[in-house]
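Notebook p. 47: complex prediction with 2KA.
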Amino acid sequence: MPIVLATTEPGEPEIFASLQGEGPSTGRPSVFVRLSRCNLACHWCDTAYTWRFTGDERPHRGGESYARKANQIAMDEREAAQAILALVPDRLVVTGGEPLLQAAALVKTLNLVRSVQPRLHIEVETNGTVEAPRSLDTLIDQYNVSPKLQHSGNPASLALVPERLQYYANDPRAFFKFVIAKPEDVNDVLVLKREYGIPAARVQLMPEGTDSQTLRHRMHWLAPIAQKYGLRVTDRLHIHIYGDLRGV
Ligand SMILES: Nc1nc2[nH]cc(C(=O)O)c2c(=O)[nH]1
Ligand code: SF4
Ligand SMILES: [Mg+2]
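Predicted complex, structure tokens below:
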């Protein structure tokens, strides 16, 4: 079964070297691989080209839809592993879309990469709704879990899966990264934190925004809220450095 990746331009898989821009590993040089497809539809999603294909009418901020052919590329796992290895990763960030939707292909790809780079650190960016089978779970060093709150526009019945949230709350490999667009969004975080017993040291609040000015403006009110509740913040370093582009 091939692995389906997003593209930076038609026919070019989104595999790139950059600095981890978000979460607890911010600032670390890493290789990124972006998988196509998602099971949610956040109205402010910054990677709608991974899921909002022509004919998908679910509401999205930009209203833009994307031709599947130009925005997806199916690769043999060996070919994908080669492309990743060409960038000589010691840290790999697997993102999407929702990468855990392609568990079987991901297991194959990651095992191939690890067979050449045995000390590879593997982080997965996930929306926290999809269970990774054991064969995949055991390959992962760090989960960056970003559960989607009410303001994402997804029904809670799809976005918040209690059994998954409890699993990550109990797993020291999992860090929670909540996207915050307005101060009231933090109330949803506090409810989830209490309900699942998520340790404060594994909770980060991240401003929603795809330009430096918005991030900076929102960080101004977000930082004192985080301080008040003893939570952490994370910025989006790659946006400040490069802007909202693919492949960075
Ligand atoms: N540099 C960089 N860091 C990131 N951390 C999470 C990303 C994502 O899109 O999931 C991302 C991304 O797209 N670029
Ligand atoms: S879960 Fe992530 S990739 Fe999926 S729609 Fe939401 S922001 Fe986009
Ligand atoms: Mg991103």
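Notes: The chain has a mean pLDDT of 98. The chain has one domain: 3-242.
Next step: compare against the earlier run before touching the bench.
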